[in-house]
Amino acid sequence: MAGSATQRLWCSRAAKADLFIRGARVIDPVSGRDEVLDVLVAKGKIGAVGAGLEAPEGIHVREADGCLLIPGLVDLHAHLREPGGEEAEEIATGTAAAAAGGYVAVFAMANTDPVIDNAGLLEGLAQRARSEAVVPLGFHAAVTVGQKGERLTEMVELSEYGVAAFSDDGVPLPDANTLRRALQYASVTGRHIAVHAEDRSLTRGGVMHEGAVSARLGLGGMPSIAESMEVERALEVAAYEDARLHLCHISTAASLEHLARAKAAGVPVTAEACPHHLVLGDEAVVTLDPNLKMNPPLRSEADRKALVEAVADGIVDCVATDHAPHCPDDKEVPFEEAPFGVTGLETALTVLYDSLVREGRLGMSTLVERMSTAPAAIAGIPAPSIAEGADADLCLFDPDHTWTLDQKTVRSRSWNSPWWGAELRGRPVLTVAAGRIVWDPGA
Ligand SMILES: [Zn+2]
Ligand SMILES: [Zn+2]
User: Where are the domains of the chain?
Assistant: First the structure.
């Protein structure tokens, strides 16, 4: 069904870029390109793409030998903590982290304080984004007022204001009837409902995935079925209503089986997986590093492998970070007491390239499709593409650049990352978003 208004993004307005990128390997799933080319960016648009192009006189030339030039990434799932959690993150720092990670569009979740559940609050945030957002920022609005699971928000009015979708992420919806009514109203607006699938009666007291590792460590477990049962139920409701459902942070093999079956049956469902679930398993938790604690938790190795396969074959449509900053005071506590959530915007492409593409498990073009083209389509915005005439939304990635996410390099206000302090290989070295240079650490 057609939407009642388009999905909107807001950002601050720096000068449009003029730039000549020479000799990068251009990988663009939209145009199907994968070859070494030169790219001219003129007044913020892709002016020319070709081999052996002449750089216009006086333009800044970027030598990009050995680098990959890809459409900029789109994140459907980030917690930017504004309003109410500015000690952990705000629009300015969260979107700066996104720029450093190669992202050209980010969609913030609504579980802020207060919750983003009305047009007045959204209007204030859009205003903030217009002055503070480094990359274009869109918003989710809550499904229920205050995320209390009772009254639905004014979805038509919120859509008219440009929200991308509706989600109570952070908490699960309380019952099937709330999801059913939400799907009915959201479908009128052309938006989807993004669901955090978790049966809290099964996860209460849990701090990590329930399995051999939790038993060994003596930690409370969060069983796989707490997710997969809710996934199955949400899929049944979406099938019954024939309405668009999006599954956040899918992490278990059983969830993937339900998802594959629903897709085969034509249910209008999309799903995302997070970098940490694709790269790490619950064995990593033996260090008791609180930066490995998130919800859903790191799963078994079998789950992780199934997830990688599902991203490769498209059963999982896209990668989303679930970037969830927490200020250091909250995270520098014993594992059991730490809050759930890890940051991800600055490391997503790096760790996925390193563990999936470099290891031959996933083609780079497929990874870019899952991190850029697919999430753009789900959000209802044009897909970034390195094609003449398009807005310059691109990321130059140096696969051999080694770096460390630390106090010197971090752009997020928080550093609760599984990769904090680790030496990483591969890094975005230039990001152009909406025609503006938003990340250029070498400049
Ligand atoms: Zn969630
Ligand atoms: Zn989340």
Answer: 72-383
